Amino acid sequence: MVNIFAILKPVVWLLMKFYGLSPQIVETEPGTKIKIWVPSKTKSANKPNVVFLHGFAGDGIFSWMSQVMAISSTHAVYVPDLLFFGGSYTDKPGRSTAFQAEVMAAALRKVGVKKCTVVGLSYGACVGFKMAKLDPELVEFIVASDTIIELNESFVRVVLDHYGFDNFVEFLMPKTADGLIRFLTICNHGPVNLPQFAAKDFLREFYNNRKEKAELAEAWVIPDNEVKPISLSQKVHLVWGDDDKIFNSNVAERTKMQLGGHTTLHYIEDGGHAVQMEKPDLYNAELKKVLSSRIINSRED
Ligand SMILES: *[C@@H]1O[C@H](CO)[C@@H](O)[C@H](O)[C@H]1NC(C)=O
């Protein structure tokens, strides 16, 4: 049986090539390899850099394809796979979001990015916040969606109890086609129309490195008594599905409050957790608007 997601790979490759992007493998240190889609030199010249960080499913380019098409004429777009997703891997023991952030920052510097806006979803936005803290020179601005600053134990327990799961790894990493469809239904506002065979192919294509991904999931959750307040020097714009069934609007408002005064929040109507995939037109319009307002503001600075 041929995997449909494997068949799609060359199609994605050609499509992204049309938008000026091609994949590179960057070694940040021996044993750590990051797959990152980078813009061609002619495409990226004199354009502001935007880096997309995906959530805890799929890979970079699969998650952000529509956004690449929407903004690559005005921005130099970089789309890495986070460690243990897609084509990125390390033999180092680090599994925390801070470790992901450190490695992503190193990979971006290797491909010549000195300053950028980070656009992140869910787990990827958590990595983005850590990157902003770790490397304020590199990260100028953050657009974060459907995320949380620190994922604490008691919050995870509430989500797991609500959906009837024993542990977080089981919730995030379905093993069967039905399990995946159920997970995607939780991530969507609307119904999920994925046939069984496609769900099986998706599991085979995107749920590699299961052991390491389970470790990432466990490292994402912080014990309640270790949660620390965060303060970022960068401005953050939050774009949120108004029907996110994991990180709901209470979490959105709380995140806005925690990040402080200059943080802004925009809801996408009828958007679920995977908002950039479910509502690409609304999401992209908002992304373009906020990115272009940044250019105007930085000219005024
Ligand atoms: C855990 O996170 C939730 C959602 O952001 C929040 O309401 C709650 O106060 C947090 N608990 C602790 C102990 O930090």
Automatic annotation (TrEMBL):
Matching SUPFAM superfamilies: alpha/beta-Hydrolases (SSF53474)
Sorted UniProt keywords: Signal
Signal sequence region: 1-23
All copies of domain AB hydrolase-1, residue ranges: 48-280
Any single Pfam family the record assigns to this protein: Abhydrolase_1
Tagged with keyword Lipoprotein: no
Single annotated GO MF: hydrolase activity
InterPro entries per record: AB_hydrolase_1, AB_hydrolase_fold, Meta-cleavage_hydrolase
Protein's UniProt name: AB hydrolase-1 domain-containing protein
